[in-house]
Design a protein that fits this description.
Layout (H helix, E strand, L loop, with lengths): L1 H15 L22 E8 L2 E8 L9 E7 L6 E8 L12 E10 L4 E9 L7 E7 L7 E6 L16 H4 L6 E5 L5 E7 L4 E6 L17 E4 L5 E9 L2 E8 L9 E5 L6 E5 L14 E7 L6 E8 L9 E10 L3 E2 L11
Antiparallel strand pairs: 1-2, 2-3, 3-4, 5-6, 6-7, 7-8, 9-10, 10-11, 11-12, 13-14, 14-15, 15-16, 17-18, 18-19, 19-20
The structure holds beta-D-galactopyranose (GAL).
């Protein structure tokens, strides 16, 4: 029966032909006709192939499956390549009802390794640490290296702190990675229990922070006490851009963006990039990544998650095109369906 069903699905996918457009908010099927399970997407372009990493929430919330990976040459049609970081490859407290979220992958040209960073946590979100895993191939399997809090810096630790930052270092939650044009890599993440965003330059292997750490030189606190998360950085014309969301769990909120000439700041806040209906909830979604459009300098794709809190496995993907306009401004607008230019 199961084989028959898969055969029927494959037949209908084949009959529909390849996908040729983006339909934000609808169910997106992979090339085998199954809904794509890769939430909090991160995309790596490697040798002409796009790899989409994300949380596989087939079994609902928490790390019950792991980080999946899909591949595509055209960004429309995605082939499931399997689970790149199976849940069992991380320590027990981060599996099942533990958290392994917002994984992102960079390729390190020097070591020829694929390096994955992720937010690891326990159910109450108190461990709040960075996990690192390494692979020889983009599709994995990734080998877990370890977890830590990359920065320990006294920002005025609170008296009562369930995350123990004074002892363990400053928290690490919603994150992204960014590879700069000079080959240096950075982690962007919500720290100080989500109050302040950190940008930390990575070491040559991309497996940890650059040492010794010097604030303003190797790492920076930005959007101080703004409570932003879901960072999505990108670069255009020598300037750095960062789109973030507010911190309201699975509920959507207003996005914001900031611009900088130097990646470690100062960053200038530019307000909400979304315009039109439902701008106040980022079109019912939360940022996760910005992907430069292939061969189109100045054009980008905003990738976001439309979380379905009651049924997280049915959370949808919202990808919208945008460009950087005069004065380093960006506008995110809703479109029902669109194609690459
Ligand atoms: C959001 C975060 C998601 C997930 C969720 C859990 O704030 O962006 O990645 O952690 O909270 O409630």
């Amino acid at each position: 029966m199961k084989t028959l069903i898969s055969f029927m699905i494959a037949l209908s996918v084949w009959a529909q032909g390849p996908r040729r457009e983006f339909t934000p908010g609808e169910v997106w099927l992979d090339t085998a006709g199954q809904p794509i399970q890769a939430h909090s997407a991160g995309i790596l372009l490697h040798r002409g192939v796009y790899y989409w990493y994300g949380e596989d929430k087939t079994l609902g919330n928490f790390n019950r499956t792991g980080i999946s990976v899909y591949s595509s040459k055209d960004l429309y049609n995605w082939k499931r390549e399997g689970v790149a970081l199976p849940k069992d490859s991380v320590p027990a407290q981060f599996r099942e009802t533990g958290v392994c979220e917002r994984a992102k992958v960079l390729y390190n040209a020097r070591t020829k390794k694929f390096v994955m960073w992720m937010h690891l946590d326990d159910k109450p979100y108190a461990v709040a640490s960075a996990g690192v895993a390494v692979a020889d191939q983009a599709t994995g399997p990734f080998r877990f290296v370890g977890y830590s809090r990359p920065v320990r810096f006294d920002f005025g630790y609170p008296e009562k702190d369930r995350t123990n930052q004074r002892e363990l270092g400053n928290t690490y939650r919603d994150m992204n990675l960014f590879l700069d044009t000079d080959g240096k890599a950075y982690a962007f993440y919500a720290s100080e229990d989500n109050w302040t965003m950190y940008i930390v330059r990575l070491n040559a292997e991309f497996t940890g922070p650059e040492m010794p750490q010097v604030e303003g030189k190797t790492w920076a606190r930005i959007l101080v006490k703004q409570m932003r998360e879901a960072p999505a950085p990108f670069k255009h014309n020598g300037k750095y851009f960062l789109i973030t969301s507010g911190c309201t769990g699975w509920k959507p909120n207003r996005a914001g963006y900031a611009v900088a000439t130097n990646i470690l700041g100062p960053w200038t806040e530019k307000g909400d990039p979304s315009v039109g209906a439902e701008a106040e909830t980022t079109f019912r979604s939360q940022s996760t990544f910005v992907l430069p459009m292939p061969g189109r300098p100045g054009k980008f794709i905003f990738l976001a998650d439309r979380w379905n809190e009651k049924q997280l496995e049915d959370s949808r993907y919202v990808w919208l095109p945008f460009e950087v306009g005069p004065g380093d401004t960006i506008e995110l607008k809703w479109v029902d369906r669109w194609q690459l230019p």
